[in-house]
Amino acid sequence: MTVQTQKAQDRPSTDRIEKRIELRASRSRVWRAIANATEFGAWFGIKLEGAFAAGATIRGRLTIPNYDHLTLEMQVERIEPEGYFSYRWHPYAIDPKVDYSTEPTTLVEFHLEEIAGGEGTAVTIVESGFDRIPLARRAEAFRMNDAGWAGQAKKLAQYVA
């Protein structure tokens, strides 16, 4: 398993997190882990209510220790079987006293491609739109989600192994 942070330029982006992971699992297996709400929840650490469908809003309670008091809401954008899955959410929305519903969301994307020679599946996870998050919490949301996606990529790899 390889987890890489990629930057489009030499200077770090404040708007976009990008992680690429190479998994020794078939594309269809990785796809199920990402696009099936039950399987997604198993590795991500969330108990989702309902199924992923383009245009649907799905909610769930986190099962991650110290975050299990939180409910997340995801608006599914696009599903292109075995290739692309995306949703919007409020990044690092962890203060139960704050109403994040008026804030812009970030876009989370999963891009899947076969590794040359059939050696597995490459997944690129991109979260973008941080520059639109209110300045007071933008840097912390970016920092926490950057670390969070590195950890989630490893959990995904363990899940499909």
- Indicate the CATH class: Alpha Beta
Gross CATH architecture:
2-Layer Sandwich
Helix tally equals 3
The biggest sheet amounts to:
8 strands, antiparallel
- First and last CA, distance: 10 Å
Characterize the structure shown.
The protein is an alpha+beta fold. It has one domain (2-43, 79-160): START domain (Alpha-D-Glucose-1,6-Bisphosphate, Chain A, domain 4, 2-Layer Sandwich), CATH 3.30.530.20. Helices cover 27% and strands 34% of the residues. Strands 1-2-8-7-6-5-4-3 form an eight-stranded antiparallel sheet, with helices on one face.
What key attributes describe this structure?
34% strand; 8 strands; Alpha-D-Glucose-1,6-Bisphosphate, Chain A, domain 4; 8-stranded antiparallel β-sheet; alpha+beta; globular; 161 residues; 3 helices
Short description, anyone?
With 161 residues, the chain is α+β, with helices and mostly antiparallel strands.
Ordered list of secondary-structure elements with their pairings:
Elements lengths: L1 E4 L10 E8 L3 H9 L1 H8 L1 E4 L7 E6 L8 E10 L3 E6 L16 E9 L6 E8 L6 H26 L1
Antiparallel strand pairs: 1-2, 2-8, 3-4, 4-5, 5-6, 6-7, 7-8
